[in-house]
Amino acid sequence: MNDELSRPDPDALLLTQQDGHRGKLKIYFGACAGVGKTFAMLQEAQRLRAQGLDVLAGIVETHNRAETAALLDGLTLLPRRAAGRSHHTEFDLDAALARHPAVILMDELAHTNVQGARHPKRWQDIDELLDAGIDVITTVNVQHLESLNDVVAGITGIQVRETVPDPFFDSADEVVLVDLPPDDLRQRLKEGKVYIGDRAERAIENFFRKGNLFALRELALRRTADRVDDQMRAWRDQQGRDRVWHTRDAILLCIGDDTGSEKLVRTAARLAARLGSVWHAIYVETPRLHRLPETQRRAILRTLQLAQELGAETATLADPDEVRAVLRYAREHNLGKIVAGRQPHRRFRRDSFAQRLGELGPDLDLLVVALDEPLRPALHAASSKPASSDKWRLRLRGCVMALLLCLAVTFIGRGLLAEFDSANAVMIYLLSVVLVALRYGRWPSVFATVINVLAFDLMFVAPTGTVAVSDLQYLVTFGVMLAVGVIVGNLTAGVRYQARVARYREQRARYLYEMAKSLGSALTPQDIAATAQRVIEVTLQARSQLLLPDEQGELQATGPDLRGTPPDAGIAKWSYSKGQPAGAGTDTLPAVPYQIVPLKSGQQCRGLLVVEPENLRQLMIPEQQRLVETFTVLIANALERMALTQSEAASRLAAEREQLRNALLSALSHDLRTPLTVLFGQAEMLMLDLAHAHAQSPFVAQAGQIREQTLSTIRLVSNMLDMARIQSGGLQLREEWVALDEVIDGALRSMGPMLKGHAFELALPSELVLIKGDSAMLERVFSNLIENSLKYAGNAAQHGIRAWRDGTRLEIGVWDSGPGIAGDSLTQIFDKFARGDKESAVPGVGLGLAISKTITEAHRGRIWAENRASGGAEFRLSLPLPAPPEISEAALK
Fold it and tell me: What long-range pairs does 317-322 form, CB within 8 A, spacing at least 24?
């Protein structure tokens, strides 16, 4: 009874499960409007309704298409509600949540809701519906994806304002591509099935040009293909990577120690280019290949570099079985085609590399390429002599140690363990073989096995003292002992090699961690150079130095000097300008005793890393070369972080300085404007009184000078106040239709006192030219330009304004015959507080041109300065000329 009472209610559990369920999102995706996304969505809705599901039409835009509207029959339509101040009807989210259908249709995913709605975007409404457990079917075009917005704008020339974040698009449970060929789509446009009336003709001539449709269709297909490929990879990862799925062509190139590997790389590159596929190039370093001479290791490194230059992703693997390493890499990266070289025939070898690949990887395509004849070993003798002598010296010490251990085991077995069974001596002999293999490698362990067998036969098998055997069963013991010794020795040597590789990798990982940690706290280039020098010296047994550009772009050494010859300035400059490595281990000047590696971050080279190893072989090992590349990436990132930090600090300081300056300008402008206005009024009244009382009084001219200077100061203060208002975002245009000659006439009247005594020419169009803009602001532009021309052109210079039509633009030039503008100042003079001559005695603070530029750009125009061929300067304005309004006869009357 108690168990029955404590059992939870099944209905409550089902409700709880339903409450936590998130709806599924299905998107009908197309290249552009008119391909049939809404039609396909409504067809799916009718199919779901026929299955008995509750389908609600939330937002469906039929655009008055009869065949699309017909598919709404039988569907429940959600009434729209008024939203925002304009009472524009929008989707009723609360009503949809209260209705809670199984499926809701939401057309135009990228739609922007009216101001006052709960969410600014429709995709946010859909996200809330999904959280409520409602399945949503929607539509969207490729140009509305945020990541492709600029690409579409560059193709079509139209900036799409309504966008959808890519993560929301990628989170959809299902994306259905609705495709239509460009010719069929344009035919639908002509038939009025997409847009109605003149809108269809304008669409065909602009957005729906055939080239645009091809490009948009390709973008949609590629975006859908990438999504399907990601889904395939995710599913494959869940199911395991035991097999390669040949969904797209991908090539894996296996590089060996053969001399024809460069031919192999070029063959793979041509094949990848022909298939349009990605390709990888790997080199598996087995214990046998690890003992290659230095010349062959350099050749392998050059081959990997060649593959990387030709576009391959390269990797170096360490594994005792190269075939299994290749297969594992191919399955991890889903590479279905393996390219390998045909190895020369070797006696006493049953299976080749290609044969083993075919046997162990039957799901992979294998392409075997014929290679050139390998070089004879004699050609490598000179270069490999030092390495070979070291190896033979180590092997000789191993043989001596094997002999000493054999004597020791024999003495202990005969003297101290005489009562023990001979099998115990066999185990001790095998132990000595393991010890020799651990310390000295494979061949000394084989020697130890042979002499141990002989010692066991001579000292423990009757008749002792001879190699004769009285009991034939000992022959089996000798054979097993020899086989076990060789196998154990080989296995121990392989484990020893793997342990050494693992130790090297652990050291590299530790060095990378230490460098990343130290560079993360570095504050100056000297700190970065010290960190790099310390880690590289420990890792590569090499000294390093950073070459960083100064303010003039000249490379300067940072950090301690190198032991040998300092890096050549010409080589360093070439490497910095080209962004390519030079020196030892590269194709550029490989004879120098150091290597120069560019520190590239993105597309920018931030300096050079010079590495001078004690042994040049350290730079020839592929793993070490990759380690150097990783070091350069870390150093370049640290330099970029430091540059960004300095730029941020400078920007923050400039913003604070600008804010303080704007506040000061605003305060001064308000405080100065009132007394200046009073002073101007009093000066004008004084001038009128003097002129009325004393017509010939010299004080009349003096009062006039006071008035003109006061008026000039008022214009200066007005500029300061306008700039403060512009900086605070308070520039509001009162656009209306105004005549060009009226705007210029108003500017000339305001500049009347300053124009006295100056020759001024006007060359305006004879017909009436109407501009849509703020007349007061445009007068301010011309006043500032005229004032600037009068200040800097000189008293003897001529001035003028010319204007003409250029298609749909109005071109205006304010010119003078003065000395002109310096070439480096043609663009800088439009900056705030910038002046043509900083040391000039001409009054002003350098705000007039900056204000003129802001006002012109607010009118969707352009302004620039240029020097005239006949002498002098000219300020050019280019303003749009929209079609003027039509004036009816009744209005004229």
Answer: 317/282, 317/283, 317/284, 317/285, 318/284, 318/285, 318/498, 318/501, 318/505, 319/284, 319/285, 319/286, 320/286, 320/287, 320/494, 320/497, 320/498, 321/286, 322/254, 322/284, 322/286, 322/353
Place of tokens 């003079």: 829
Residue with tokens 């009184």: 689
Tokens 């990387």 -> residue: 308
| Burial (CB count within 10 angstroms: exposed 0-12, middle 13-18, buried 19+), residue 812 | buried
**Phi and psi at residue 271, in whole multiples of 5°?**
-65, -45
Using the Cα atoms of residue 670, residue 673, residue 678 and residue 679 in order, give the sign of their dihedral. positive
Number of Cα atoms under 13 Å in the Cβ half of residue 782: 26
Looking at per-residue pLDDT, the higher value among 751 and 879 belongs to 879
Helix 622-693 × helix 294-309 angle, to 10°: 40
- The SS3 assignment for 252 reads strand
> Could you tell me where the DSSP H helices lie in 561-698?
569-578, 622-693
With both helix axes pointing from N to C terminus, report the angle between 381-411 and 422-440 in degrees, rounded to the nearest 10. 150
Pull the structure tokens for residue 566: 């300092």
Contact of 452 with 432, CB cutoff 8 Å: yes
Q: In sequence order, what are the residues at sequence separation of 6 or more whose Cβ sits closer than 8 angstroms to the Cβ of residue 241?
A: 331, 332, 334
* Helical axes 353-360 vs 322-332, angle rounded to 10°: 50
| Mean pLDDT score, 294-299 | 71
| C-alpha distances in Å from residue 266, one per residue of 2, 276, 309, 813 | 79, 15, 11, 60
Report the pLDDT value the prediction gives residue 348, as an integer from 0 to 100. Answer: 40
Q: In this predicted structure, what is the pLDDT of residue 135?
A: 93
d(CA 637, CA 772): 51
Residue type, 586: T
Within 8 A by CB and 6+ apart from 356, the residues are 323
Helix axes 182-190, 210-239, angle to 10 degrees: 130
Q: Which residue has the tokens 């729906």?
A: 208
Gap between the Cα atoms of 546 and 273, Å rounded: 38
Torsion of CA 122, 128, 134, 140, to 10 degrees: 30
User: Among residues 810, 762, 817, 761, which one has the least CA distance to residue 789?
Assistant: 817
* DSSP-derived pairing of the beta strands 555-558 and 582-583: unpaired
pLDDT in tens, 315-356: 888 777 888 889 888 888 888 889 988 765 554 444 577 888
